[in-house]
Write a structure and sequence with these properties.
Number of strands: 22
Strand order of the largest sheet: 3-2-1-4-5-7-6-8-9
Radius of gyration: 26 Å
Distance between the termini: 65 Å
CATH architecture of the largest domain: 3-Layer(aba) Sandwich
CATH class of the largest domain: Alpha Beta
CATH superfamily of the largest domain: Vaccinia Virus protein VP39
Shape: elongated
Number of helices: 16
Strand content: 15-25%
Helix content: 25-40%
Largest sheet: 9 strands, mixed
Length: 521
């Protein structure tokens, strides 16, 4: 009989929480329609759909009798409601939930207040005391001031057991108020979401848990290097999940963004395990799961640290194969830099077509089938840079270079797209590369023709593409990521380059050559 009673209680709890989540989801949809688009962009508002919120709330493991919870960018309250619903379904459930929700938009505060009333009613029926507090002050203002008080002996403040967040997504300028606030706690970052996550981490108590959904962009690249170091001094990952489809998590808002959901704990135990998973969407369709060591997720290469998300074991052989290659970029005597021409800054020097006193200006559109094809008569982009005041610092000398696109769509055939700049095809004593390109060089000079062809062939291989899609989930191909890559030794690069003629072979043949010359061991 006891078993049947428990089953009845669980069914009642599920029905109650389903009603709570349905009501809050309807409110979220209504609020989304009423938000003014310009203000929404200014605040970086993307309200969390119920399936995502429920998925996130299900990750928490906290078993405290009284749970202190933080929702630092609460919106209409979807995450707060999902957390309350998850606790109501727990057996045993907590005695009390004490929730602090931050929201500065007056329209959303009205929805949030109603959501917390619904949470209170559902919790009461489950035998849980629910205390909900709305703070209408800016979270970064309050959080940074609180943490600055810690630094200067300002006394104790509330520490949270759990935090659930979908932080605002917006770039922040170097001299903005937000950047100054974050600098006050020792963090330099370029996006608001990283600031919210960092402040939240510091407000957790020992062994406090955070579950967040953010863009995957923080996992690698130079813009988030300082944030990664800051976060990993405070937190260890225990669960990481990626959605395979970029358009599902925030489908209502038509957001095309590769997102990651993670659970992290405030502790320092890099030897622990992390569950890494992926699915098509928040419903969990096609779920793949694996367990790996924290040190395999968080990879350290010299002074750099990256978060390397590989949701299944199939990626391990590729990672091992690339990791076993002979050389780093510095071993080869090479480096990679970002193109110097930022076109809106050099507007007065741009020319549609080459002419007297101009040099070739290379854009991503000039990369065609493994070589730079210039000029391009089918593009609206300029083909030339005029010589004159300010031009010299943008130029590099004639030579063989390997150039790669800095940006690619996830759906593109290859993530890394490389091409050889061949001076025998382009008559010019200097060249300019636009800022959306990275270029490989030997201390400012060109490479040998065979080394350039071999390097481009390796970068265009399926081996590198498969590895890089694990290593870099988002669409930006940073110079720092290319520096962290392992490469074949110099002799192997030259041998591979000797097999490339006036055109690059089809992908299957190129992969066979790379396998034969580079991966023969």
């Amino acid at each position: 009989m006891v078993g049947n009673d428990v089953k009845v209680v669980d069914e009642v709890a599920e029905s109650r929480t389903d009603s709570l989540l349905s009501a809050v989801e309807a409110a979220r949809r209504d609020a989304s329609l009423r938000l003014e688009p310009r203000r929404r962009a200014l605040l970086g508002q993307f309200l969390t759909p119920a399936p995502v919120a429920t998925f996130m709330a299900g990750m928490f493991e906290c078993r405290k009798a009284v749970v202190h919870v933080l929702d630092p960018g609460a919106g209409s309250g979807a995450l707060s409601a999902a957390f309350a619903a998850a606790m109501c379904r727990r057996r045993p459930c907590p005695d009390a939930i004490v929730l602090t929700a931050y929201e500065i938009d007056p329209l959303l505060v009205g929805y949030l207040r109603k959501t917390l009333d619904l949470c209170r009613a559902a919790s009461k029926e489950a035998g849980i005391r629910f205390e909900g507090r709305i703070v209408t002050n800016d979270f970064l203002d309050v959080g940074a001031s609180t943490l600055a008080g810690d630094l200067f002996g300002g006394g104790e403040h509330e520490r949270f057991d759990c935090a659930i967040l979908n932080p605002p997504y917006r770039k922040i300028r170097t001299e903005s108020r937000e950047r100054k606030l974050l600098r006050s706690i020792g963090l330099e970052t370029t996006n608001l979401y990283a600031g919210f996550v960092a402040v939240t981490a510091r407000l957790l108590g020992p062994l406090g848990e955070m579950v967040a959904i953010t863009p995957r962009s923080f996992c690698n690249g130079p813009y988030f290097e300082a944030f990664r170091r800051f976060f990993l001094r405070e937190m260890c990952f225990r669960r990481v999940h990626v959605f395979d489809a970029r358009d599902r998590a925030f489908a209502d808002d038509k957001v095309l963004q590769e997102n990651v959901v993670f659970r992290a704990v405030r502790m320092h135990d890099p030897g622990g395990d992390v569950v890494v998973s992926s699915s098509l969407d928040p419903s969990g369709s096609g779920m793949r799961t694996r367990t790996m060591k924290h040190d395999d997720l968080v990879r350290r290469t010299g002074p750099h640290v990256f978060i390397h998300i590989v949701p299944d074991n199939a990626g391990d052989p590729i990672r091992r194969r690339v990791g076993s290659l002979d050389a780093s970029l510095s071993d080869l005597g090479l480096t990679v830099s970002t193109g110097r021409v930022v076109d809106f800054r050099a507007k007065g020097l741009l020319r549609a077509q080459p002419g007297r006193d101009t040099v070739p200006l290379i854009y991503p559109c000039h990369l065609q089938e493994g070589f730079v094809e210039w000029p391009n008569g089918h593009t609206r982009k300029p083909n030339a840079l005029a010589l004159g005041p300010g031009a010299d610092e943008l130029l590099i000398p004639e030579g063989y270079y390997v150039v790669t696109k800095r940006f690619s769509a996830k759906e593109e055939r290859r993530r890394v797209v490389a091409a050889v700049y061949d001076p025998s095809r382009i008559a010019a004593d200097r060249v300019a590369f636009e800022n959306h390109l990275n270029y490989y060089h030997a201390r400012g000079a060109g490479l040998s023709v065979t080394a350039a062809k071999g390097l481009a062939a390796y970068l265009n291989s399926t081996l590198v593409d498969s590895y890089f899609r694990q290593f870099s989930g988002h669409t930006q191909v940073n110079a720092a990521d290319l520096r962290a890559l392992r490469y074949p030794g110099w002799n192997d690069l030259v041998a591979l380059g000797r097999r490339i003629g006036r055109s690059f072979p089809p992908q299957e043949e190129l992969d066979r050559l790379v396998e034969e010359v580079v991966c023969r061991g």
